[in-house]
TrEMBL record, chains A, B:
This is Winged helix-turn-helix transcriptional regulator. One of its GO terms (molecular function) is DNA binding. SUPFAM superfamilies: Winged helix' DNA-binding domain (SSF46785). It comes from the Bacteria. Keywords: DNA-binding, Transcription, Transcription regulation.
Length: 117, 117
DNA sequence: TCCAATGGTACCCTTTTCGACACTATGAGC
DNA sequence: GCTCATAGTGTCGAAAAGGGTACCATTGGA
């Protein structure tokens, strides 16, 4: 059944590439990680940066990123509810990866031009 | 319907990350690109480097990579059939990305340790 | 004629991914 | 009581992704 997230990748050279990809390849994950690189964001702040994401999808992807140890989710005891998301220490080590992806996309993909974050 | 490959990514900053990911996130693509970084490989050579890939899946992913302009497929007029695969010029620009993914996987994913290619 | 090597293709199935839509919970303020 | 803001959750369906299995085509050599 496909490339299950967290498959063991003890097969052959190069599998580390697939292992890393399995953590970041869900829709919206890459761009979420990119935005979190610049600091803490609340749920709705992330959501407003992604024009077409549904609440449901965003919640799910954030939960997976958290489960994989790439981001941290801080719940505040307040009303209205407040939840902050940050890159974890581990997530921060992904910055070269995310930046490499962005640099390549900016240079090579039509319509992927980026404006100021 | 999911993140269709080649979606226009003219929405917001950071979309370039997703755009790039959409090209390389099919199962086996990352590791195929990694192996092609070291030079031309024939279909069966690639296949033997990936212990659990089916012929069908490998063919499909190679065809997609070719369609996206990341690899070149050279057919030789001979029997038995011979088809060589290489990174395209465009594909070569992805090397920093693939290497970043591999470096991160090697350092951070259990069981993703790599041996000599 | 049969077998081998190579690189496929056809048909079908299962699972996963993603999104639409509706609904929920909390306290604060009016 | 009602509305608001925030961050969700539940249910379902469509499409995509991935894979299994069988079969195919070609020439060369035994």
């Amino acid at each position: 059944m496909g490339r299950t997230r967290h498959d063991r990748f003890d097969c052959s050279p190069g599998c580390a590439v697939e292992a890393t990809l399995s953590l970041i390849d869900g829709k919206w994950k890459g761009v979420v990680l990119y935005h979190l690189m610049s600091g803490t964001l609340r749920f709705n702040e992330i959501r407003r940066k992604l024009p077409n994401v549904t609440q449901r999808m965003l919640t799910n992807q954030l939960r997976e990123l958290e489960a994989d140890g790439l981001i941290t989710r801080t719940v505040f005891a307040q009303v209205p509810p407040r939840v902050d998301y940050d890159l974890s220490e581990r997530g921060r080590t992904l910055e070269p990866v995310i930046l490499a992806l962005k640099v390549w996309g900016d240079a090579n993909m039509p319509s992927a031009g980026s404006a100021a974050a």
